Amino acid sequence: MDTTQRTEQQRSADRRRRELLEAADRVVLRDGPQASMNAIAAEAGITKPILYRHFGDKGGLYAALAKRHTDALLDSLRAALDAPAERRERVEATLDTYLAAIEARPQVYRFLMHPSDGSPGEQGFDVGKHSAPLLRRMGEELAQVIEDRVDLGPGSQQLARVWGHGIVGMMHAAGDWWLGERPCTRAELVRSLADLLWGRLAAAGDKLGGPGV
Amino acid sequence: MDTTQRTEQQRSADRRRRELLEAADRVVLRDGPQASMNAIAAEAGITKPILYRHFGDKGGLYAALAKRHTDALLDSLRAALDAPAERRERVEATLDTYLAAIEARPQVYRFLMHPSDGSPGEQGFDVGKHSAPLLRRMGEELAQVIEDRVDLGPGSQQLARVWGHGIVGMMHAAGDWWLGERPCTRAELVRSLADLLWGRLAAAGDKLGGPGV
DNA sequence: GACTCACGTTACCGCTAGTAACACGCACGT
DNA sequence: ACGTGCGTGTTACTAGCGGTAACGTGAGTC
User: Which of A177, A190, A206, B10 could make an S-S bridge to B165, C-beta 3.0–4.6 Å?
Assistant: First the structure.
């Protein structure tokens, strides 16, 4: 009895929690990452303390919110990464998946990448602790895939992790810039980035004439 | 006379401004990016309204503060980029310069990369507008250097810009991760990243056995 | 009918960014 | 010599934020 009753309550609580998250989602989508707790509570039709009872603090709510989108995006990326195709094709598909996602919902992307900060009270100075968790997770996932599928010889694990985070950062920064300026099509961007990863920078020759021409 | 008098005042104002910036620098170095205007004013030995008279709002102060460090770092990077050496050597030197800088002053780095946000009142939804300006500037600079010195054939300008931002992002993300976990020495990180840019990912073979081993 | 307990509220605290209004000092014109 | 601006600085304030304590209130239970 005790257990069933508890599960009943827990289900109710979970449903409420999901409703609150969806309301928060709507507000963040509308107001950007600096959406206030008041606004979120109002959108959900309740008041602040309930939010705090469910999520602890603003950081908790944002973390829960971010986890949903992050998981969704990572699923898409995994599908592209694990497809049975040539490596270059997989790389291009993954880049394109990511860029299509941030292109489709820029606000969500901005929220995930610039979560302002979690808790203004605690200020642990660990660099990167407040940094976007999405980038870290993507980097780790990519590192795992690289290590699993690419033969890198000795020191492969460490190399794979460096590359995972590096490639993700490349994708992110180029995507951020591209989203702001739109200097080319998505396909062109994907091709350019893949070319970079394929060593075209090293293969290209020096420009003649030195500085001046 | 009028001009000399004005310059006199302007010099005084500039000196004051520099003093304020140095005080703000100290506070940000100590309290992180969420240093309050009150704290900065107290450190400078004055009160808030003076800060606002000099810098407009918090965003203005942070922009001025960031510009100093950004300019300094960019100068170092330019020196490494323009050195008369082989391309690979220059790339490694540049990576190392950047990583050494963020290693030496993590707080400054964090402040430059995560400027919270400038103006909470205005919320224009341009993605990337609030993003770290340092990354953008580094990306543009690197793009220029690539375009000037590397022969990329047709479409070189656009390609150079994509690569500039992409490489900077790679450097940034890998540096951020490395600074947090310190999984290897700086030299190893530099070498791994340079290897990535040199196409070692494309050159490596598939791992045998498929998924499972 | 009294008790419990989760759900929800109002009203508050301490903090922040930012501003209006007032006060001192110093060079200036008449 | 005496106002008069004007730059420099202050105090005291507003509006809004994250977060919390204390207070209803209605449903199920003995």
Answer: A177
Do A73 and A139 sit in the same domain of this protein? yes
Q: Is residue B61 a part of any domain in this protein?
A: no
pLDDT in tens, A45-79: 999 999 999 999 999 999 999 999 999 999 999 99
* Cβ–Cβ < 8 Å for A152, A159: yes
> Residues with Cβ < 8 Å from B141, sequence gap 6 or more?
B74, B77, B78, B81, B164
Q: Across the interface, do A34 and B200 touch by the CB < 8 Å criterion?
A: no
Whichever domain contains B25, its CATH number is 1.10.10.60
- φ and ψ at B201, to 5 degrees? -65, -45
Region for A153 from its dihedrals, namely left if φ exceeds 0, alpha if ψ lies in -120 to 50, beta otherwise = left
- Please tell me whether residue B155 adopts helix, strand or coil conformation: coil
pLDDT beneath 50, residues of chain B: 1-6, 117-130, 212-213
CA B1 to chain centre: 42
Please indicate, yes or no, if residue B46 is contained in any of the structural domains.
yes
| Record: contact B169-A167, CB cut-off 8 A | no
Nearest CA-CA partner of B118 in B101, B130, B126, B105: B130
**Residue B31: per-residue pLDDT:** 86
Q: Are residue B157 and residue B111 in the same domain, yes or no?
A: yes
Q: Which two tokens stand for residue A159?
A: 């190399």
B52 Cβ within 7 A of any nucleic strand C atom: yes
In a domain? residue A31: yes
Which of A198, A204, A211 comes nearest B152 by C-beta?
A: A204
For residue A183, tell me if it sits in a domain: yes
Contact A98, A158 (CB under 8 A): no
Helix, strand, or coil (residue B205): strand
Of B107, B163, B173, which is closest to A139 when you measure between CB atoms? Answer: B173
- Predicted confidence at residue A16, as pLDDT, reads 86
Residue lying closest to nucleotide D6, CA to C1': B9
Least confident of A101-105, A195-199, B28-32, B39-43: B28-32
Please tell me the total count of domains within chain B.
Answer: 2
Residue type, A56: G
pLDDT for A130 equals 44
Asked whether residue A213 carries a pLDDT value surpassing 50, the answer given is no
Query: For residue B31, what are the domain limits?
Result: 8-56
Is residue B150 within a helix (H) or strand (E), and if so which, with residue range? strand B150-151
SS3 label, residue A109: helix
